[in-house]
């Protein structure tokens, strides 16, 4: 049966997705690029993080393993909380506090003195999926439990980019309501989307006059029902203009710092007549609003600071010089790329490999060791590059996920926590696809890892040293779980070709991915 709690879909779990933009290191990078920073530690207090609406808790657990501090979160779906708490317990993460409370209940929990002050509060998409009362509860949580100088990360569906799709979304909600409540949200969601698509094809004037709505419906066809139900079928669903969100945040004493990824410069990609108009506006809220119209932005990810205060230019550059970076994949991965795609609100920017080859080669030196911006700009291979150009290039590559922020010094406690969580993530791969990630103590964030790669690591952590033995191990897992092994074009291998394929893949993994994962500390704990 379809169930909504305060207008939110609760009879279908949300997807277990990792959100890199919630990573503390990446948030700090975006802040520094805009002249701000996370608050300084005081009186030996640990870094404290709160995620409002953590879904299945994958991001929360990965961040807790990879970053020292306390990681709190709440999600009022008990099934989500059970999954998040189960992962933390399996990995022995005693710094995860995964609560199952509504936002009003969290406020009451805090009023009892059970909730600390936080350095960083994050909410991904939630702002657009809840009613006005719950948004006010969130603002009160920020007022009472965000430290001075603390940061709010808020992402939401934005206007004007969503304007044309609002009627289509409303049509689907009304169709689902009219269909009845005796079906679950997944079934109703599929029916609503199928109906909207068929009605669009019937020649209905709205869809004929708004072809971009048809394109949006087509682009969503392959998404899972879990995603579609939670993203589009909540009764409380509202996109916002930037100024309206900024006003509410200001009421909680939080000033706008930056939109994440704003350091990817788009001036050369806007219409030449638009740029002078944007540059003539001195009011920051109006400028952001105009920019949203210039690029027709449909989703915003913004950072706010309580009691806003920016760094001096000298202090900003000092801290940027101290930032360290690593490649997000082994060098062989980048060797196969012909161009690097930087996603933006107005399409993709493509960089040629030869334009960034000196940086890539440098980043791969010394077994992928982290390298500070200070080191990079003085490196013999990069010293001839203009410092501002180099920083912009690094910023674009970091924004797109080709580079990660890194720590040059990591405690053994953090390394051990990551190893334990990686063991859990690899064990999951025995039953099914599981979560296609590992966590690195060097970056504090996730590294993509296929089921096959995690099984190779599991075989190695269980004491098998030869890649051919890893292939045998994976072959048995696939046989036991009746897994279809597909080639690069999506066709199943013949039974006699599966093991030779796995032997070849294991050898390539040993030569390319494994050394990189070792350097990132992303190796599972030994089996018992």
Question: What this model shows, in words?
Answer:
This protein has 528 residues and is α/β, with parallel strands linked by helices. It has 4 domains: 28-160 and 238-313, Vaccinia Virus protein VP39 (Rossmann fold, 3-Layer(aba) Sandwich), CATH 3.40.50; 163-232, no CATH class; 333-406; 412-519, no CATH class. The chain has 23 helices and 16 strands. The strands form 5 sheets. The protein has a 7-stranded mixed beta sheet, with helices on both faces. It has a 3-stranded antiparallel beta sheet with strand order 13-10-14. A hairpin with a 2-residue loop joins β1 and β2. α3 packs across α19 (412-428). It is globular, with a radius of gyration of 24 Å. The two termini are 43 Å apart.
Q: What is the gist of this entry?
A:
With 528 residues, the chain is an alpha/beta fold. The chain has helices spanning 24-33, 58-66, 78-91, 103-111, 132-145, 166-179, 185-201, 205-209, 211-219, 225-232, 242-251, 274-280, 284-295, 313-322, 331-335, 353-368, 373-377, 387-399, 412-428, 451-461, 467-480, 495-511, 513-519, and strands at 4-5, 8-9, 48-52, 70-74, 96-99, 118-124, 146-157, 254-259, 299-306, 324-327, 339-344, 347-352, 371-372, 403-406, 437-439, 446-448.
